[in-house]
Design a protein that fits this description.
With 334 residues, this protein is an alpha+beta fold. It is 61% helix and 7% strand.
Length: 334
């Protein structure tokens, strides 16, 4: 690899890329996050679009630890989870015309969240590492040191099992009608961001021309996390004690997420590089399931949310104002 390509990979060039923009499909809608706020737009039962500012925060100036490399990924992940939960709750209330006065019990919500986390840990962390033993890939006995090649092979096998479980889970829920609609809204979110990055006016007709896949999707992030997790876990060998192995898997999640986030950003900024294509290939391919083709109404909702998180000094807004001025000049030549 030539030195200039190495430099480009390490120092991503500035371009019109939605670095500060992200999104998430919710029930009958889309949540978009910009540089200073997050907005959820939902299609109501009467056909109208209802929006809500989920969160606002001041413009960041000067030094901010939350923007430091290998640290920012932790804050981004936490913020995405919390904003997503708030947006999902709002979409459920709006899309199904629930009474706003009926607030969920916080104790029940906390218990449900705790149970969900426990099930996720059991299914995606504990079960895969135990399955390695059940299917006979590891003999009972002494633990393997990091220098033992079999330690890497066992961690690799565990990672593959984890991917199979994840893919199977997504395939299973994708058969549900409501989940399919969420996946179609996911596609509308990606199309909108792709159109924005292509510098075209955000109209339904324009947005529909763009693909449903996107490099910075959370699906791609998950696959990168699995790859990095395999490599980092191998540094600790392979303990014979399942609880020690599980503790290591949990303890390394934060550094794994941080490293994976940096790889996601760097690779997305250098999509033409072979390494980037290798990292993104599983996620892009899997988006054939998780980001489906939306209809025009779904795209309209995604555009509605996205336009509300774009600041006034964004090139898209400036370009639109210039276009409007040119049209006005043609109409009123004086």
């Amino acid at each position: 690899m030539k030195s200039k390509y190495i430099f480009n990979f390490l120092c991503a060039p500035e371009e019109r890329e939605a670095k500060l923009y992200g999104g998430q499909a919710i029930l009958e809608g889309v949540m978009m996050k910009g540089s200073n706020k997050a907005v959820a737009s939902v299609r109501c039962p009467d056909g109208s679009i209802k929006s809500k500012v989920i969160k606002e925060w001041p413009e960041k100036k000067g030094f901010d630890i939350k923007r430091m490399s290998f640290i920012r990924g932790i804050f981004v992940l936490y913020e995405s989870l919390t904003l997503g939960m708030i947006a999902l709750r709002y979409s459920a209330e709006t899309a199904f015309d629930e009474e706003e006065g009926e607030k969920p019990n916080p104790i029940i919500e906390s218990l449900m969240f705790a149970v969900s986390i426990a099930l996720a840990i059991g299914l995606f962390l504990v079960f895969p590492t135990k399955l390695v033993e059940w299917i006979g890939l590891k003999e009972a006995g002494a633990s393997l040191s990091p220098s033992d090649p079999n330690a890497l092979l066992l961690n690799l096998a565990e990672g593959v099992i984890r991917i199979i479980i994840f893919v199977g889970y997504i395939l299973a829920i994708s058969l549900m009608k409501d989940i399919k609609r969420v996946f179609r809204y996911h596609g509308s979110e990606h199309k909108t961001v792709n159109a924005y990055e292509a510098r075209v006016p955000l109209t339904v007709k324009n947005v529909q021309k763009y693909p449903t896949a996107h490099f910075r999707c959370g699906t791609s992030f998950i696959f990168i996390v699995v790859i990095v997790h395999i490599l980092i876990s191998a540094l600790f060998g392979f303990s014979d004690n399942i609880w020690i192995r599980t503790a290591i898997r949990l303890g390394t999640l934060i550094p794994v997420a941080s490293i994976s986030y940096e790889l996601l950003r760097l690779s997305a900024a250098n999509k033409s590089l072979l390494l980037s294509r290798i990292l993104f290939f599983p996620g892009i391919a899997f988006q054939k399931i998780t980001a489906l083709e939306p209809d025009d109404d779904m795209v309209e909702v995604a555009i509605d949310a996205f336009k509300q998180v774009i600041p006034e000094d964004d090139p898209l807004i400036i370009e639109k104002q210039n276009q409007d001025e040119e049209v006005s000049a043609d109409i009123n030549p004086d």
